[in-house]
Design goal:
This protein is mainly α. Helix content is about 35%, strand content about 5%. The strands form 2 sheets. Strands 2-3-4 form a 3-stranded antiparallel sheet. Strands 1-5 form a two-stranded parallel sheet. α2 packs across α7.
């Protein structure tokens, strides 16, 4: 088998020291839950594997229901392991045997567990990236260890929701060995499913065969970044309050106002619009499906139940957008220019009369003219006025 082509899921182990050092409240909650449910040791188990040996195991795997055992070939030799032996090799004791199995349950859908998500509406899409921080962390722990999966990391497939349901408030622990065992059985029946639990299987093979094989695949550690407990906050209504002033143009009487800049890009508005569009689309699809069902029943002569179509949603953002555009247009309108006033050559320094408006605050204010002040006309050359000044003093 060529290098890199073995159908093996790349598993990771949980670096508990890393998550404990982070001291994040959601990581701490996940660590406590793993200790409570018995996940701590098995998820932190680290063991590299040999890709060729696991490929031989995967291609020759056979299950004997009478003996409750797996059989396979390693380098041409047949080996087998039963349920209890495999469980003991992984350090899963009698307490794990008493716990509930997962695979006897129906596979849950994300829409059945809206409490897992930031918003119940997001449960319809079932995107793992919208899970609340604690459940997001636990889902990452599951999908890289005991429920290792390859492919889309945002998809909640197979029994992923069943595992998350068990760690919800009031949930009961489940049998880890039973879950790993039945995932191996499902791998045999589904040719498109890659081999999970690579480090656990490699460890078991070396203990059963009593042969230590060279390892060419490293069991890497899982490191996650902390996630905030709430959805991101919307930016402030007046973006100038937080914008760096270095990037703002200088204010001008004819320049556009920036007081509402960024309002259209607020997170809250985009999130609400997204939810509205999703609800509107779902309503249209439901109405269309019901009309099709009624038409088919009528064509077949079957009784059709009366159905009142769901009302069409009016766009709740139309008025908001109109008001926002009007405010933006008003803010961008040019301000009135200051009135041009004819000023006398000399002016007394008096305060403006009550109610008078000063439009140009930067306009220079002339000082009060001294007694016997005479204005000298400008000339091309400077004139000596010392004699005239002396004459004025004598007078």
């Amino acid at each position: 088998m060529r290098k890199g082509k073995a159908p093996i899921v790349p598993c990771k182990y949980i670096d508990w020291e890393y998550f404990e050092r982070m001291n994040d409240p959601f990581f701490n909650q996940a660590i406590a839950k793993c200790k409570e449910f018995g996940f701590y040791d098995i998820m932190g188990f680290r063991y590299d594997w040999n890709e060729e040996i696991l490929a031989q195991f995967h291609s020759s795997l056979f299950y004997d229901a009478r003996q409750i055992a797996f059989f396979w070939n390693t380098e041409g030799v047949k080996y087998g392991v039963d349920y209890m032996t495999f469980s003991r090799l992984l350090g899963l004791g009698s307490e794990d045997e008493k716990r509930d199995p997962i695979h006897v349950e129906h596979q849950l859908k994300p829409s059945q567990l809206p409490a897992l998500f930031y918003n119940p509406i997001l449960a319809e899409a079932g995107n793992a990236s919208t899970l609340q921080p604690f459940y997001y962390t636990m889902n990452q722990f599951f999908r890289t260890t005991i429920d290792a999966k390859d492919g889309d990391a945002t998809a909640l497939r197979y029994f992923a929701c069943n595992l998350l349901a068990r760690i919800m408030p009031g949930g009961r622990p489940f049998s880890i060995m039973d879950f790993i065992w039945n995932e191996l059985r499902r791998t045999m029946n589904d040719p498109q499913k890659f081999l999970p639990s690579a480090p656990y299987i490699m460890y078991m093979i070396e203990r059963v065969t009593k042969v230590t094989f060279p390892k060419d695949c490293k069991h890497a550690a899982l490191h996650l970044r902390p996630r905030f407990g709430d959805a991101p906050h919307a930016p402030p209504l007046y973006a100038d309050a937080t914008r760096n002033p270095r990037f703002d143009p200088a204010p001008s009487y004819s320049g556009p106002s920036s007081s509402r800049r960024g309002h259209h890009d607020s997170f809250i508005k985009r999130a609400l619009k997204s939810i509205f569009c999703m609800c509107k689309t779902a309503t249209q699809e439901i109405n269309e499906n019901r009309r099709d069902i009624i038409e088919i029943k009528s064509h077949l002569g079957l009784p059709a139940d009366p159905y009142h179509e769901l009302p069409e949603f009016d766009d709740p953002f139309a008025e908001w957008d109109a008001a926002d555009e009007a405010a933006t247009a008003a803010a961008h309108a040019p301000l009135p220019r200051p009135r041009q006033r004819t000023r006398a050559p000399t002016r007394s320094r008096r305060s403006p009369s009550r109610g008078q408006e000063i439009f140009d605050e930067e306009e220079e204010i002339e000082e009060e003219a001294p007694p016997n002040y005479r204005e000298i006309p400008d000339s091309d050359e400077d004139e000596d006025t010392s004699d005239e000044d002396a004459q004025d003093d004598d007078e």
